[in-house]
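Protein 1 of 2
SEQ + STRUCT:
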Amino acid sequence: MALFSTIFQALLRKGTLLGLLVIVVFGIVEIALWVFAPVAPYANYEFTFKNAMTPYGLEESSVYEIDSREVRTRPSTEDRAQSLSMLILGGEGSAQPLQSAGDTWWGRVATEMERQFPDVALDVAVKASNTTNATGTSLRRAVSWAKTYAAELDPDIMVVSFGISEVLDAPESFRYNPTTMQMLPAEARRSSIKDKVVGVSQIARRVRQWRKAGSEDLAERKALWEQPDFYLKSSGQKQRVYESLPFDVRPPRWDSDKDPKLEYLDGLRTLRALAKRLGAEFIVVGEPALHDDNLSFDGIDRLSRPRWTKRPTVADPNGAGLRPDPAWVERELNRFYDSADDWASKEDLSFVNLNQESVLAKTVENFVDDTMLTQVGSQRVADELAPAVTSSIKKVLAN
């Protein structure tokens, strides 16, 4: 009996030493990873699109990268004395999914800024709020998202670009509430025990990313999305649904106290307040759209964005909606942007209206669809926006 007890104690001591050794090794690896090769707690996904969209003014191939927060990034490759960051919040067109990051308007702006400021490296993060199969407007969704994630991105400059969703996604039953934007809850984070471990462990982050990279779900998505004609088919389906809808002969005429424009302005104010708390410069952009009162036939053929009367759902993927009059959409956007311009002027903020014919002609040379831009359109938007970003960088550097 004494012999068994002695053997058990010896094994226990060896097991304890082995356990301590494992803990020490893991601790050393964790510290080394945090110091020399830290990775973000979010999974990153990359897709290579064979667009079959060259007739639409896009490159034949593009790389679309996005993380699990639904953020696209353009990290700087420059090693410079000072590093700045710019956060773009916008409607669904802001992501420019069929362009590699360097070809998007925000990627081109960053490249131009690094040319103008030889000592500055500019990182860009973009969150485009898509309202497909979702309630509310892009701006509402962006406010909730920003309340959760903006602080960790620590932007020096915040650019906000909304409009088309705010015009087309407001239901006819809309009633303005001046507290809606301020009271929107922050987007919920995942909060399982695994998520908490990933928050503090570099090893756990890598294990999660390796597992997601090899997941069956991601493999199926890549196989579907990377088909040469995937977006062409998807776009065609959207256009067929759009063309099957009745024309909107009686668009809403809003009473002054029920106007969705008021909520749009509240959303800008809410994001401005957040930017101010983060110490970020703030730029307001009038989101560009193809809609126009004198739109050509080939431009009309590119439209696919309904004015929903009943949002699509999983059970009813087509929903119920109307084909809006492009002239009405243009008038509404101008009405929203005129008020945004007035507000920005009073707040001494930059306002860049990209929805002007003199800035960006409403033609298929510039637009792939309602809001997605061609290569040419992206360059023109970048050229127009660059002076405002230049001014903001000068203010940041001065402070």
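Protein 2 of 2
SEQ + STRUCT:
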Amino acid sequence: MAIDFKVNTKVDGLDKFKKYIEYVSNIAKLSNDKKFQEFLQKKFLNTVNFISQIYLPDNAMKSEYIKNNQIRPMDNGFIIYNNTAIDTDSAGYGGKFSIALAFEYGTGIIGQNNPKVGAWQYNVKGHTDGWWYPSNEKDTNPIKFVTKDGLTLAWTKGFEGYEIYRYSKEEIEKNLPYWVKEYTGNNGGVGR
């Protein structure tokens, strides 16, 4: 005994379903489309720069930070990162201090009281009041002095994190479907 099924492919619902499957298939092909990847890289980087412009205070490090938002292509996509750092030898810390991580999570007493992530060390030296950091004439901090060696220092208690990458991620997730439509001409096709 055999069971036979008859399917009428002219049924409106099945035709719509077939078009949807073709649309999904075309969208999946975009992951291997180099031009689409480059298109997304530009959109993502522009978003991170825009969020940085909005959330970071106007100070000497803002333009340096934005300039250092970068993209590194990977086999299966790309990474957006920022490697802005300053030399901290003159302040007695040794090595480099990541401005990128500090801007994301915060620093010092103020950052510690408004934590953005559990694993970040907000107050490495255990300051109870604040500390001096290397500065320059572009720094808008009004509390400064120049050492006998000519080094400009400014006083801080730290700052709350600006969460640039968290806000960028939220903005990217919100806009990604629109960018796919923009790239595909709003019809689900691949490429331009």
